[in-house]
Amino acid sequence: MREKIFSEAVFFAQQAIEKNAKAILALAGQTVAGHEVSGWLALEIGDKVEEPRKIIQIVSELESYVTKSQYPFRIRNKIISPKEFFTEERTRAILKKAEFVFEKLEKLLRERYGLGVK
Q1: Structure letter (DSSP) for residue 73
Q2: Residue 40: helix, strand or coil by DSSP?
Q3: What CA–CA distances, in Å, run from 81 to 13, 75, 84, 111?
Q4: How many angstroms separate the CA atoms of 39 and 1, rounded?
Q5: How far apart are CA 90 and CA 111, in angstroms?
Q6: Beta bridge partners of 80
Q7: Residue 98: which of 44, 49, 60 has the closest Cα?
Q8: Which positions ≥6 away from 107 have C-beta within 8 Å?
Q9: What are phi and psi of 80, to 5 degrees?
Q10: d(CA 63, CA 40)
Q11: Which residues are paired to 61 by β-bridges?
Q12: Four-residue CA torsion sign, 28, 29, 35, 40
């Protein structure tokens, strides 16, 4: 039986959101290096999507998982591995949020710029 590694699912979900966000920013003439796109995205999508605050809040949360999904980290005085932190329940909740954002950003790319996943 294949081992379930939920941290990888979170990492790939974050990457999908980041790539969509960077596409939107690039189309607006902005180039952003690194994984933190929420601040720039907030400036760009504010009046172009439904629920922009919710989208930015989730994008910001996903940004916090970039390194947590790849490397051990400290909580209080304990070192936590990605495998320990990203339980199935936590991962399902994160993926549900990521799916919401992905759909909103993909809709913006499709309707405003004629781009998107087919």
Answers
A1: E
A2: helix
A3: 19, 10, 5, 40
A4: 41
A5: 32
A6: 73
A7: 60
A8: 49, 116
A9: -115, 130
A10: 13
A11: none
A12: negative
pLDDT for res 4: 74
* Category of 75 on φ-ψ map: left (φ > 0), alpha (ψ -120 to 50) or beta: beta
A 10 A CB-CB count for 90 gives: 13
Distances in Å between the Cα of 105 and the Cα atoms of 42, 87, 93 are 12, 27, 19
Reported confidence tier of residue 116, pLDDT bands at 50, 70, 90: low
Evaluate whether 32 touches 40 at the Cβ level (below 8 Å). Answer: yes
pLDDT digits (tens, 9 = 90+) for 42-70: 999 989 999 999 999 999 999 999 999 99
pLDDT at 117: 63
Rounded distance between C-alpha atoms, residue 30 and residue 66, angstroms: 22
Q: Domain 6-113: which CATH class?
A: mainly alpha
Rounded to two decimals, the pTM is 0.91
Rounded (10°) CA dihedral 93, 97, 98, 104:
160
**Is residue 59 helix, strand or coil?**
helix
